[in-house]
Amino acid sequence: MLKVVGASWEQTRLTSILLFIVVVIALVTILFFEVPIDANDGIYSATAFYSKQSGFNIKFWGQNNHPHKVKKGIVRAYYKPTTHQTGWASIEIETQSKYPDWAQAFGAGLLEGSLSWQLIYSRWMNIIGTKCQNNQEQCNAIRAKLRDMETAAKAKAKKADLTDHYWHQVNLYYTQLDGLEEGWKLGVSRSRKKKQLNILHEDFLWMNSVEDIKNLEELRYNNIDEFRNSKQYVSLALLKLLPNTTVQFMLAHESGGPYTEMLRMQKKYIFGYHYTSSNKSNLVPGETIVFTSYPGAIYSLDDFYQISGGNALTVSGTAMRMLNYSVLEKIDFNKILIGPRVMAACRLSRKGQDWADLIDIEESGTGGKQWLVVDTKGPLSFWVVEQGPGITVGSLETDILANQGYWLSTGIPHFEKLRSILGYDDISKTRFGKAVDMLKTGLRNVTNPGELLELMHKPELVALGRPDIIKYNNEYQEKTTNPTNGGVIDLKIAIGNNDYLATAGPLHSDEVPPFQWSNSILQYLPHYGQPDVWKFEPVHPPWVWH
To answer: Which residues cross the membrane (predicted)?
Structure first.
């Protein structure tokens, strides 16, 4: 007789059920703990809601949100803190025109300040916090001046807000800046670091007035070593006409600045502003402004804009080197600083000539530039506008552009009147020399963005903007054994008015190595939040809302 050894049928059934449960638990564990269903995408979004009764209410949606499902409210924002991946962070902000302009502006500032609070604090440490530790007296004097100028500008703007288009935009600029400060405080509070971190109100003004303050320092404090900077950073703009193409032109733009200022942001503002504070007034032409900028700044600062809506403008600015410092006495600090003037011009202009006229209103004389304004709303037109203390000169230069096929801006004034005032008695003494000839020759043969990138990465041109590399001091650079604390810190190439490529950081090539803080002779400079090695590829803008 065969004997069956084992459990009963009931025991076998129970064992099978238990085994099934164990297998299910194991699978769930693997799925939820070893293979995340929805990994964080590193992109943050938020919406500000507003009503007259309850004021502002902000909803932070966190990560993993489809951009088109982010609720609009009065303002919504989409923030990518990708500094260490691409060299750029980015933020896109969209407001709704049915709400009052002031609420749109304040809400936009709230979201930008709260989402990017960490980058704002790092930038503040790099350019103000560290700098002012041993220069409290001078820094407080600058803060007092900025506070006085803000008070005066706000008073004028509020008085004319209801009727004057220009002053309404100035008012919105300062309203957005107030919102940015409140948003930063909110971001710090949410991180539970409120007691450890603080940025003065005047320092938010400072972060938006860097160019103006440079002139203030030159005028009042140029005898103090910590504030003296007699060498101007290299800044270039190259406009190439591309007739019979859909994009019509390309514009390469290199920004010059201190390496402490390499925390960069690409920004896209889609604002439903009106001509006046009345919602019954028409919407401004410059609805969408795309620009490269910095944390805590609400205008470009590096002077690169693409503007669209009721207009189609590409604007770049190249700092003009001042050789006659006595002209600084003509600066009028009772007028409007460069930031609100530029943003007002970008929003109110329907065509290039409008921009040239608007940038001159209430001109303080600070942040002098050669501005290139390309208008593609209709047949392409091209304006050049130059500003210095007490003077603005602009003219239509479309014919010259058409005849040459290009325009090269190196910071040397185009107009004779500006050359005389700024001290350019002999432009042959300027430092660009053979580099200008190389650029002119190269531009004639450039037909696409790849070729323009290749031209800008020629070793001689790269070294021109890299004073940190002593061994590359040559005829294309100023002779020095004591390099400046900065140089070229980016390259943008506008491809028509609707696209661009952006490279973050000092340029490099096969012959010129990437900038690296840890082995640089400039490593003593503050660089909180920055990558160590600046070796990034060009990127297209990462916009999601159109």
So the answer is: 12-33
467: confidence class by pLDDT, cuts 50, 70, 90: confident
* Torsion over CA: 317, 260, 292, 101 (sign): negative
Dist CA 268 CA 92 (whole Å): 5
157 SS3 class: helix
> What is the reported pTM?
0.90
96 falls within a domain: no
Q: Which domain range does residue 390 map to?
A: 124-534
Q: How many CA atoms lie within 13 A of 379 on its CB side?
A: 3
> Dihedral (C-alpha) 478, 481, 486, 491: value to the nearest 10 degrees?
50
Q: What is the CATH number of the domain that holds 381?
A: 3.60.60.30
Q: Is the pLDDT of residue 351 over 70?
A: yes
The answer to whether 433 touches 440, Cβ cutoff 8 Å, is no
Decide: residue 265, CB within 10 A, 0-12 exposed, 13-18 middle, 19+ buried.
buried
The answer to whether 310 and 375 have CB atoms below 8 angstroms apart is: no
Inside any domain, residue 393 = yes
Evaluate whether residue 27 is within a structural domain.
no
Question: Would you state the pLDDT for residue 484?
Answer: 78
Q: How far is 62 from 68, CA to CA, in rounded Å?
A: 15
Average pLDDT over residues 97-123: 99
Inside any domain, residue 78:
no
In angstroms, the CA 538 to CA 110 distance is: 30
User: Which whole number is the average pLDDT over 303-316?
Assistant: 98
